[in-house]
Design brief:
With 155 residues, this protein is α/β, with parallel strands linked by helices. It contains 5 helices and 4 strands; from the N terminus they run βαβαβαβαα. The chain has one domain: TIM Barrel, CATH 3.20.20. α3 runs parallel beside α4. The mean pLDDT is 94. One of its GO terms (molecular function) is N-acylneuraminate-9-phosphate synthase activity.
């Protein structure tokens, strides 16, 4: 079950959680602001982190009504596990959400971008990576040369 939080408060979402959890433990909440198109300053992506903290046992996602894909991709970087976007074949069609919907090529771009961000999240452990070795070896060589030059000049 997917539950969008558009037009709701945090108190309401807590009550929804308490109501749904005993009946169906397989559900997720989506951060959503119900406006078409949604302005960036009204998105409130930080709610994703608040939902993750308040409801750690369910997936948290994002339902986007903004233009473009950047904000939805940012939601993934902030931990959204589910995304929902409207899709249209023509943004000029009548209706409240066609303008804020994605056309098929934008949907493909969104999926590619999400996969790239997921891949780039990597590990939380900071360590020297194998891909850094050529650079390290090069820098180490020049540092040693510099140290030798300083030593020779000080003689």
């Amino acid at each position: 079950m997917v539950i969008s939080s558009g037009m709701q408060s945090m108190d309401t979402m807590r009550r929804v959680y308490e109501l749904v959890k005993p009946i169906n433990p397989n559900f997720c909440f989506l951060q959503c602001t119900s406006a078409y198109p949604l302005l960036p300053e009204d998105v409130n992506l930080r709610v994703i982190q608040e939902f993750k903290s308040a409801f750690p046992d369910i997936p948290i996602g994002y339902s986007g009504h903004e233009n473009g894909i950047a904000i939805t991709v940012a939601a993934i970087a902030l931990g959204a596990k589910v995304v929902e976007r409207h899709v249209t074949l023509d943004k000029t069609w009548k209706g409240t959400d066609h303008q804020a919907s994605l056309e098929p090529n934008e949907l493909a771009d969104l999926v590619r971008s999400i996969r790239l961000v997921e891949k780039s999240m990597g590990s939380s452990v900071k360590r020297l990576l194998p891909c850094e070795m050529p650079c390290l070896n090069k820098v180490t060589f020049y540092v040693l040369v510099f140290i030798l030059e300083v030593c020779v000049m000080s003689l």
